[in-house]
């Protein structure tokens, strides 16, 4: 009964987001806009009109792309808030295909994350630090099935 076909790949998505009343979300919190995990930059609430509901106007930035998104939701209606996880890893190696070899605090290794895309400062600091032989820590943020390296710092404890 344990090995039912299809169950190991099935994903209910239950842990990706949590429902929350729009009026409870504050600046600095998270919200899903257009099915993207976003960090709220500003919230303004309009007065209740003749049709009843006060409306929350959210301005937020996508936590992975930095793109600005807006949404208007009645304050008493439910909206989705992404579960955002932040993990710090020690960088062990960078493969020829730009996959990062990482290790967490408990010693678990993973090699499934690629170097961030594009010619940004983050890619430059990871490359330069690794090539110089520095001990580097990278911060990986995970939300809604996506994982990205968000920052890198020189490990001073080593």
From TrEMBL:
Pfam families: eIF-5a (PF01287), IF5A-like_N (PF21485). It comes from the Eukaryota. SUPFAM superfamilies: Nucleic acid-binding proteins (SSF50249), Translation proteins SH3-like domain (SSF50104). The keyword Protein biosynthesis applies. Its main location: plastid. Residues 83-153 form the Translation initiation factor 5A C-terminal domain. Keywords: Chloroplast, Hypusine, Initiation factor, Plastid, Protein biosynthesis. PROSITE patterns: IF5A_HYPUSINE. The keyword Protein biosynthesis applies. CDD domains: S1_eIF5A. GO terms for molecular function: translation initiation factor activity. It is found in: Plastid, Chloroplast. InterPro entries: IF5A-like, IF5A-like_N, IF5A_C, NA-bd_OB-fold, Rib_uL2_dom2, Trans_elong_IF5A_hypusine_site, Translation_prot_SH3-like_sf. SMART domains: eIF-5a. eIF-5A seems to be the only eukaryotic protein to have a hypusine residue which is a post-translational modification of a lysine by the addition of a butylamino group. PANTHER family: TRANSLATION INITIATION FACTOR 5A FAMILY MEMBER (PTHR11673). Translation factor that promotes translation elongation and termination, particularly upon ribosome stalling at specific amino acid sequence contexts. Binds between the exit (E) and peptidyl (P) site of the ribosome and promotes rescue of stalled ribosome: specifically required for efficient translation of polyproline-containing peptides as well as other motifs that stall the ribosome. Acts as ribosome quality control (RQC) cofactor by joining the RQC complex to facilitate peptidyl transfer during CAT tailing step. Belongs to the eIF-5A family. This is Eukaryotic translation initiation factor 5A. It comes from Aureococcus anophagefferens (Harmful bloom alga). The gene is EIF5A2.
């Amino acid at each position: 009964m344990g090995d039912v076909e299809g169950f190991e790949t099935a994903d209910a998505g239950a842990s990706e987001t949590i429902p929350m009343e729009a009026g409870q979300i504050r600046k600095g919190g998270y919200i899903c806009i257009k099915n993207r995990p976003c960090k709220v930059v500003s919230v303004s609430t309009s007065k209740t009109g003749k049709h009843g509901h006060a409306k929350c106007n959210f301005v937020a930035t996508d936590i992975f792309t930095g793109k600005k998104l807006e949404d208007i939701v009645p304050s008493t209606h439910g909206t989705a808030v992404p579960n955002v996880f932040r993990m710090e890893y020690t960088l062990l190696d960078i493969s020829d295909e730009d996959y990062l070899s990482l290790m967490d605090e408990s010693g678990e290794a993973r090699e499934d994350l690629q170097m961030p895309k594009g010619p940004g400062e983050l890619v430059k600091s990871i490359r330069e630090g690794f090539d110089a032989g520095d001990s580097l820590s990278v911060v990986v943020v995970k939300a809604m099935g996506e994982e990205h390296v968000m920052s890198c710092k020189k490990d001073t404890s080593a």
